[in-house]
Amino acid sequence: MEALSIKNITKEYIGHVALDDVSISVPQSSIYGLLGPNGAGKTTLIRIVTQIIAADAGEIFFKGKKIEPKDIFRIGYLPEERGLYKKMKVGEQLLYLARLKGVSKTEAIHKIRLWLKKLDLEGWWNKNVQDLSKGMQQKIQFIATIMADPELIILDEPFSGFDPINANTIKDEILQLRDEGATIIFSTHRMESVEELCDHIALIDRSKKILEGSQEDIKNSFRSNTYRIEHRGKLSDLPERFQVNDSADSGMGNWKSEITILNGESGNDLLKHLIEKSEIVSFNEKIPTMNEIFISKVNEGINE
Q1: Residue 303 falls within a domain, yes or no?
Q2: Which of 69, 95, 185, 267 is found 20 to 30 A from 142 (Cα to Cα)?
Q3: How many other C-beta atoms lie within 10 A of the C-beta of residue 66?
């Protein structure tokens, strides 16, 4: 089931097309990576979904129905541009933002105390936001985003300002929210976070969607039948169907080689041939990372 269906969205500013007929489908209870270089159109698309701005053309469907203004109460949005009131106290600000989303005062206070304890901010209720570190402020904005139990959560660069320990804490919370049924759109430039978190991705470049699908299917489509092998001694006299891309002595008699199979044979065929030539220490297929795929697709578009 689709939580969000974006169909043929176009948005143009004076002299600039921000989005050109973009369509994506976000599955229910998934973490969906919205990727692209700076200026690709990601933030414009997010602002259209959250009804901050309107599209020039196209439609958006939320849980099977055309999105309406009232649906904003079912969406939590953490923008890249942070927007806390620096001179307000933490508890007062979170309560105010929760009430704007329709959460009762009693329920909001309970949830705020729960989340402050969960994110190790228990003693900060009566502190001014300006007294918090950047990472602490980011935690407060994360709490504000999820306070009303939104069905759709949009996170734009959510790990900005976090050290590795706090980033892992928020990653765990994001995964828990997905497991509890929330749908999460995750916009970031950090491909390692995409690898860890995203079930599906869409890549937008220069206002157009150029790639979409599950992370597994996309990676499989970019496999090149290439293997990384560590072996004893230098390889020689390989058949032409096994192309050696790189081979180097790594010390202690071990060599590391990268070999591509050219004629459709399997990795087992290559391994069988290598065993006759050398002692194999390790043998692994080279699976492209999301970062490699991202760079490849964006560069492909630049060179067209």
Answers
A1: no
A2: 69
A3: 10
DSSP state of 74: G
In whole angstroms, what is the distance from residue 147 CA to residue 204 CA?
Answer: 30
Q: Which range marks the domain in which residue 269 is found? A: 224-286
- Taking only the tens place, the pLDDT of each residue in 64-91 is 999 999 999 999 999 877 778 888 899 9
- One domain for residues 267 and 137: no
How many of the other CB atoms lie within 10 Å of CB of 247? Answer: 16
DSSP for 103-135, written as a single string: --HHHHHHHHHHHHHHTT-GGGTTSBGGGS-HH
CB atoms near residue 31 (< 10 Å): 25
Domain stops at, among 197, 220, 243: 220
Is residue 179 a part of any domain in this protein? yes
pTM (predicted TM-score): 0.87
CATH of the domain at 88: 3.40.50.300
